[in-house]
Amino acid sequence: MIRLGIIGTSSIAHEFATAAKASGQFEIKAVYSRTQFNAQSFGEGYGADLFVTELDKFTALEEVDAIYIASPNSLHFEQAMSAIANGKHLIVEKPIFSNTKEWEAAFSAAKANNVFLFEAARHLHEPNFALVKNEIAKLGEIDGASFTYAKYSSRYDQVLAGEEPNIFSLNFSGGALSDLGVYLLYAAIAWFGVPEEVDYAAKKIQTGVDGAGTMLLKYPYFTASLHTSKIYNSFADSEIYSAKKTLILDGVNLIQSVELVDGETNERYQLAEKASGHFMDDEVQAFARVLNDPENPDTIEDYERWTQISRDVNRTMEALRKKAGIVYPADLDEA
């Protein structure tokens, strides 16, 4: 049983704790928050019995083997480095770090301290995500792709009222690209590889971050167009084009429908597998498999593949931000 500590008490942290506890692979042991009340209120329902408000004391707990981080984006790096220095394995919510400088420093430290560092990009581990990759290989030459993830955030109401919530703040490395666009980038890079060139037409809001935007990922023989937003909703499907055949997805994460359309015969084939269980089950089991069997060549191969994709996504996100002139305070700090 992997003894887990949790940093953050947000809704996504609740979801991960629920899946981790239900998996039978993790014991929720400790929670870190700025206040004792928040830590205890979050953790008691999952069986945690250690509640800490000082970061260094939390990451040094001998009763914890691994730590899950679900704090605001700009806090990930400091928290991760403290945990790594104390020999803890890490699962960090996407986006894992604010920039490539932080990414390289953290993964270098993790390797030096012989700990695993995972980015919690849950869709990478879903069966239908792998199914799409296999179907793309069958299509042959790709002519284009269009992915969309746009969902109105209730916190945008706070922005309109003159406030600056974390997810829409440069200080906390927020914005549509970092929060939702990262899902699209993971899909494009896992399925097509690293693009040769990128561009980002961002719609900036009054806090300075991108509230929405369109990314262009240019490959040798096609371009992928990625649309993301936290200030409006879109109900568009995501599509991959190959001459007379098109793959139509109901999204690039939590994929429930993968339809192959033959434009010549007008026939449609539903390819998706039916999902079951908690939506974080697959990533929880994937991380546990590596932590429980760290010498297995297959698990190490998976870990190295996930790490490379994380690196490529992080580098591409930074390049896109630069194209849009979006600079985080974290970019100006020395990692």
UniProtKB/TrEMBL annotation:
It comes from the Bacteria. Gene3D superfamilies: Dihydrodipicolinate Reductase, domain 2, NAD(P)-binding Rossmann-like Domain. One of its GO terms (molecular function) is nucleotide binding. InterPro entries: Gfo/Idh/MocA-like_OxRdtase_N, GFO_IDH_MocA-like_dom, NAD(P)-bd_dom_sf. This is Gfo/Idh/MocA family oxidoreductase. Residues 2-118 form the Gfo/Idh/MocA-like oxidoreductase N-terminal domain. Residues 148-234 form the GFO/IDH/MocA-like oxidoreductase domain.
